Amino acid sequence: MTFYFIFADEERNTKKAKNRPSCLGYPVSIFFIVVNEFCERFSYYGMKAVLVLYFKYFIGWDNDLSTTIYHTFVALCYLTPILGAIIADSWLGKFKTIVYLSIVYTIGQVIMAISAIHDITDTNRDGTPDNMTFHTAMSMLGLILIALGTGGIKPCVAAFGGDQFEEHQEKQRSTFFSIFYLSINAGSLLSTLITPILRAQECGIYSKQSCFPLAFGVPAALMVVALIVFIAGHNMYIMESPKGNILLQVMKCIGFAIRNRFNHRSKQHPKREHWMDWAEEKYDKLLIAQVKMVLKVLFLYIPLPMFWALFDQQGSRWTLQATTMDGNFGAFIIQPDQMQIVNPILIVIMVPIMDSAVYPLIKKCGLNFTPLRRMTVGMLLASLAFVAAALLQIQIDRTVPNFPSSSQTQVKFLNLENTPVPVVVEGQEPFVVPGFNECSDELFRLQLNDITEKPNQGMNAIRFVNGFRSHLNFSVKSDHLGPIAPLQASDYFSVTHGKASFTIENEEGQTCHYILQLGFGSSYTVLIPNTFTFGESCTENIKAIQDINPNDIHMAWQVIQYFLMTCGEVVFSVTGLDFSYSQAPSNMKSVLQAGWLLTVAVGNIIVLIVAEAGSLPEQWAEYVLFACLLVAVSIIFAVMAYFYTYMDPAEIEAKFMELEPDDKKRKELEMMTKDNLAYVNNETSNNTDVKQTKI
């Protein structure tokens, strides 16, 4: 299928804006933008919700590498907005930037969906890809394109929506932004709920596996819809021509000040009040004053990445933690990656509560709860969330058996006879393995641990030991283990939670149905004794030995840490954005927005460094480490906030606006003086040359 994109001249579209269709006082064009944002956010958050489990269960990476790549991707998503803003403001304009990068975005999502199809390289049809390098390379390419696309359009869409309103439509513009951010939360919430359900399904051509292709394919389809809807409204948009990027101007001004200060570093040059004053030779005092205000706020941003280092682990470490927990809520089953939905739900609840109840109550108590103090409290709440996660992890670890280390070997003894057997192992105390009818669950649980970790995805690992006198066939649902010879054991195979019905069949066609109630993440060895007989009471002598306990800690306990983290986010993030907006010069709010997004990127880089470089043996210890680091950073931030002086950018700008005409005249006079001096020097040089010629 071929798409033709027709881009009308931006100035001509601006002239036609007066005759644009409207609905209830709003330009119709904004509805295309809102639908586009909903679909795009659904696409992004839906893919992101299952990403770390895709790395762990499909690609086969361990928890640390999965966490590292996940946070590398998130960091890229928050680095590329700066590139998108520069492209839109300096070159293509917002509309073309959104369309072009959305195409890149869509291609990336499609590649991700293709990379998750295990049948592509599963030549032996055993359910496992035979060329994992292909799938890994495809997924990395897809993620790079997605990061470029989602990050590149991030600073453009909201601003493009604001451009659709005229000056007299301030009220409608304000309402639009509320609806716009509601569409973001709606897309995030629905996708976080739906895509884990899709992932939990089983699909495949030759063998059924977790349906990651569907979990990635639906977000890809939503991104296609987002692109089509956005292009469909192009005739109705107001498109402003690129006016130059203020971020580049700020960077040039800072660069010139640094170079000029370095060139005049000798003591013979008098010092200036601020190092940015060294840019006065080239830039207006108003711009320099605005840059000073921006740098003052950016300095406060230095400790902030540590908050995001903890916050974004909701999609990585906390999701992996949920895989070792019980998600049975009675009426429904919660998937591990669905627990992330708690955050957007709590945000919708907590924001109005904080604004209408908590903050007014604090004010009535006479406490000066300034924005920077709120942010400090938010950071401390996030550290408490990780303390809660650490305490929960300690409880989870108690349900996991002590597996042998790499320098140890575990030997199991299984006595299928009715009489006890004494065993002597060199270097160990002699012991007796009781007969089958005498054995205890405790002894077998210690000796029959054959797998070295909890089964993946909350599945249960089951194996059969045949102590019967003839071959037996074992099957569950459509899975057949084949004939198991006497005194032999089957391999482990995975069974979902709930009531599992196993069929045992002999060579004569007699069958026995054995039912086992399974939880999440357990392991069993089912023993068929030599006294086993087919018939109505065939299950009486069958013994199921529990090798690994099921996930006993309920997933609902994670709500505590999610609640603390969400409270921290509301107090920290919402307040931080409002503070940045109030302290930013009128034309540099986008610069501070870029700086804010950069703190998110750096925070994710901190996580991947700790995940790869850290050598902590226990996960709870890593949680405590992050909590302690954030507490230390919070103290530093509190000290910085104590010495911060709040500004009124409008007042400062008005002051310099009054001085700007005189400043321009002074610079023009200096330029004229320099030109005159250059002219005089040139004349003098010419006269000297003439005299020398005469001589």
Tally of DSSP helical segments: 19
Profile the largest sheet: 5 strands, mixed
What is the C-alpha radius of gyration, as a whole number of Å?
Answer: 33 Å
Number of separate strands: 15
Q: Helix amount, in percent?
A: 55-70%
Mean pLDDT: 82
Tell me the fraction of residues in β-strands, as a range. Answer: 5-15%
Shape: elongated
Q: Tell me the distance between the termini.
A: 83 Å
Uncertain segments are 1-18, 438-449, 677-695
Question: Which oligomeric state applies?
Answer: single chain
Describe this structure in words.
The protein is an alpha+beta fold and 695 residues long. 57% of the residues lie in helices and 9% in strands. The chain has 19 helices and 15 strands. It has helices at residues 10-16, 29-49, 51-59, 63-92, 94-115, 132-162, 170-200, 212-232, 246-263, 285-300, 305-311, 317-322, 342-364, 371-397, 441-447, 558-583, 589-613, 619-642, 649-694; strands at residues 22-23, 26-27, 202-203, 209-210, 421-423, 431-433, 460-466, 472-476, 479-484, 488-489, 493-495, 498-506, 511-518, 523-528, 543-548. The strands form five sheets. Strands 7, 10, 11, 14 and 15 form a five-stranded mixed β-sheet that branches. Strands 9-8-12-13 form a four-stranded antiparallel β-sheet, with no helix packed on it. Strands 1-2 form a two-stranded antiparallel sheet. Strand 1 (22-23) and strand 2 form a beta hairpin. Helix 2 (29-49) runs parallel beside helix 7 and helix 2 runs antiparallel to helix 8 (212-232).
